[in-house]
Amino acid sequence: MNILILGSGGREHSLAWAIKQNPKCDRLIVAPGNAGIAAIAECADINILDGDAVATFAEENAVDFVIIGPEAPLAAGVADRLRAAGLLVFGPSAAAAQLEASKSFTKALCAAANAPTAGYAHFTDAEAARAYIRAQGAPIVVKADGLAAGKGVIVAMTLDEALAAIDDMFDGSFGDAGAEVVIEEFMEGEEASFFLLCDGKTVLPIGTAQDHKRAFDGDTGPNTGGMGAYSPAPVMTDAITQKAITEIVQPTMDEMARRGTPFQGVLFTGLMIKNGQPRLVEYNVRFGDPECQVLMMRLGGQILDLLQACAEQRLDEVQVNWADDHALTIVMAANGYPGAYTNGSVINGLHQQPENSFHMVFHAGTAEKDGQIIATGGRVLGMTARGATLEEAHEKAYAMAQTVDWPGGFYRSDIGWRAL
Ligand code: AMP
Ligand code: GLY
Predict the structure, then answer these.
(1) What is the domain extent for residue 83?
(2) Ligand with an atom nearest the CA of residue 190
């Protein structure tokens, strides 16, 4: 099978690494890829937001299966374009990607599906939004409606913060994403991420994870795309997992199918759990980054069979083979991230890293220059390890991070603290 993966982050490196272990994989191409991906797959420089360009490339290269990593091409309809060309695709249509691309769409869908989530109101007018916030009081959560690269959510602990967030969003700080806002009830509890493959009818759980969104130790500092993650999430007991499926995920999938826009791909379900009850925080229509890295570390080569069954709408025929293991990833980020940072610093000490089914350095933002690996992004590397216990995975991943020689970067020293 010739496989094309779209994307260039740690998520796509881990997908490529796991897929390559499956004997069904003949040729593996990642577009555009990065320096780590280039060591295990061909990289192709195509514009992955351009459905025509991707379709042409796939046809010219006899690609049998396209796997779409990030949300932007999904929201842009690249999956639709590829399916129209007769290609086998993993990833939802633009219509189904609304579950991530529009918060008001998802809130209305949850209401129709009777899925537990925070109470909310939707505004296109700043004055009405302010009046609502004053009436509700703090804490309260203000969200830009559209895709805002993970930065469009303000959890306001005071009325002033919430009102300032409204000013920012209507002033254009979030671009078009802020022209509409969703204001939500503040939910307390513990968060977890639940990943399921969905083919329009069947849902298949493929793992849980918890991540660390804040930049610094002790969950302090600014929000990031994620500074580390571990799988499984201990808070996701069997009872809570079952509730999340029957009360939230399955009703959402049924409602999407009923509307004529079935969801096909991976549903990243963000949950808030309190007193044994899960409630939906948000959906994403793709794997999380860095959550994907720990899921792939645990699933290995079988992921190709699962993604293919999903794309062929045969999820009712497959099952996941679980090892009772744990994985943890530590993100190494460029100094300054998530604020301004510089590209180009040299990373040493990667050659001596162990790379096998228990240890892997997933590259997120790297390139090769004059025979050296340099940083080319905010989040740069994911030191990922697997073990029989979370403690063991934690120890192995930190042993890896400590031997990287990169003065231009930093990492948190407490990934997994809540579970350890
Ligand atoms: P989102 O992009 O919707 O996942 O929001 C980012 C983060 O904001 C979530 O992971 C939560 O930590 C927090 N958050 C979002 N919505 C709420 C809410 N209604 N109550 C409490 N925290 C929230
Ligand atoms: N790590 C969070 C995300 O991928 O959205």
Answers:
(1) 2-90
(2) 1
